[in-house]
Design brief:
By secondary structure, the chain is an alpha+beta fold. The protein folds into four domains: 94 residues; 88 residues, PAS domain (Beta-Lactamase); 66 residues; 146 residues, 2-Layer Sandwich (Heat Shock Protein 90), CATH 3.30.565. The chain contains ten helices and twelve strands. About 1% of the residues have low confidence. The strands form three sheets. The chain has a five-stranded antiparallel beta sheet with strand order 2-1-5-4-3, sandwiched between helices.
């Protein structure tokens, strides 16, 4: 039992004992008993009134003194007040620290309400978007009207961050990503990627210019080499040299063409030429072209369903052409190549499988990198540019598809492509 409660019981007992004793001596026992209870009630009411006045005053002053149960209550309330003040000070300190950290971040932070109205933001967001105090409560779409951003923020699906250029500063490229906080709030993280965007643009322009400028000297080299190759008898050393030079010219032309294709894809992501084409016919055409590379050493097995698809015909030709030709070129001793085209409810699944030299497991994650070559199946003897699978992945991705690669050394390789049915890209 708490000491204050024990003290209060003894206080009530003393009051009632004294009242009962006086009442018994005056033969007014019941009246004095009630009078004792009334005195105790008045005394308790005064204590309660003081406690409420102290609580209503914010418990800032010294708590009303006393002992017994009311003293315990005021002491408990006073301790709770101190703990609450410490917690409040700690929370305020944490809020100030978080605010300082958010303000020091170079990325813009904007917190939106469930209805996409602006709640708060940091200084970087003010620099990027020009947010003012009067903008609190307005829709974020009043500041960022980019259609891609509107579609991104309105979608319930998880999408890649969107890149926008604002009308008031079209030279600045911003990347915006959104994430939910709780069930209602949305946090926008705005990153200035102008420098990286410019680097990518310069890199793409450089690659495009280099691939273009390589074509003229390579054409001249080929012309002179073919002319010299057809004149007179040559020694075995001269014939070998001529053959090797022509092979290297061919290889440089393939490299220039692949660089040109990849550069064109990267520059026209937002302007893909959409066509409706027969995917089965396209694969059959590419298989016929690849058969010429293998000198009849490769056996093709086709199981292709009829499939009309709308998409980037040029990109799909480059993608599947590289995948199918890879199965031929990287297995020069001959191999069985199985190609299946299955029509599904939401898209088409194309699988190119061979039982050739296979792929090293460590190499598979990097096969779609530019110029990457594995130690075994991807080597310089094939004469490839090292860009084929990079082109394939890029073309498939921008068509909304997916490329999966699997295999093992000595067990062949499997390339799975899934393409969705889409009316526009």
């Amino acid at each position: 039992m708490r000491p204050g409660l024990r003290e209060e019981i003894w206080r009530v007992a003393r009051v009632l004992f004294i009242a009962s004793l006086l009442g018994w001596s005056m033969d007014l026992y019941f009246q004095f008993f009630l009078f004792g209870l009334f005195i105790y009630f008045i005394w308790s009411f005064r204590k309660i009134t003081k406690i409420f006045a102290w609580v209503d005053g914010g418990m800032r002053s010294i708590p009303p003194g006393g002992n017994g149960i009311w003293g315990d209550i005021t002491e408990i309330l006073n301790r709770q007040r101190k703990r609450h003040r410490k917690a409040k000070d700690k929370l305020s300190s944490a809020i100030r620290r978080v605010t300082q950290i958010v303000e020091s971040i170079d990325d813009g932070i904007v917190i939106l309400n469930q209805d996409r109205t602006i709640d708060s933001w940091n200084q970087a967001a003010t620099k990027f978007l020009g947010v003012r105090k009067s903008d609190r409560g307005i829709s974020i779409f009043n500041l960022i009207r980019d259609p891609d951003f509107v579609a991104y923020l309105s979608s319930s699906e998880t999408l890649e961050p969107v890149q926008v250029n604002l009308p008031n500063n079209i030279e600045r490229t911003l990347q915006i990503s959104a994430s939910m906080v709780g069930d209602k709030d949305i946090v926008l993280v705005i990153t200035d990627i102008t420098k990286f965007s410019n680097i990518d643009r310069l890199k793409s322009e450089f690659v495009s210019n280099v691939s273009h400028e390589l074509r003229t000297p390579l054409t001249v080299f080929r012309g002179y080499l073919e002319s010299l190759d057809g004149k007179g008898k040559k020694s075995s050393a001269e014939s070998l040299a001529m053959q090797q030079m022509l092979e290297q010219v061919n290889r440089m032309e393939v490299l220039a063409n692949d660089l040109s294709i990849l550069s064109a894809m990267e520059e026209t992501d937002s302007a893909v030429q959409i066509e409706t084409f027969n995917l089965r016919v396209l694969i059959e055409e590419l298989v016929d072209e690849s058969k010429k590379l293998g000198n009849s050493k490769h056996v093709f097995s086709l199981e292709l369903s009829e499939c009309q698809i709308t998409g980037d015909l040029k990109g799909m030709r480059a993608a599947f052409g590289n995948i199918i030709s890879n199965a031929v070129l990287h297995n020069p001793e001959g191999v069985s190549i199985e190609i299946t085209l299955t029509v599904e409810s939401e898209g088409a699944l194309i699988i190119v499988r061979d039982n050739g030299v296979g792929l090293a497991l460590d190499d598979i994650p990097r096969l779609t990198e530019r110029f990457f070559r594995g130690d075994k199946s991807r080597n310089f003897a094939t004469g490839g540019s090292g860009l084929g699978l990079a082109i394939a992945k890029h073309a498939i991705n921008r068509s909304g598809g997916r490329l999966d690669i699997s295999g093992n050394v000595g067990e062949g390789a499997k390339f799975s492509v899934w393409l969705p049915y889409r009316e526009g890209l």
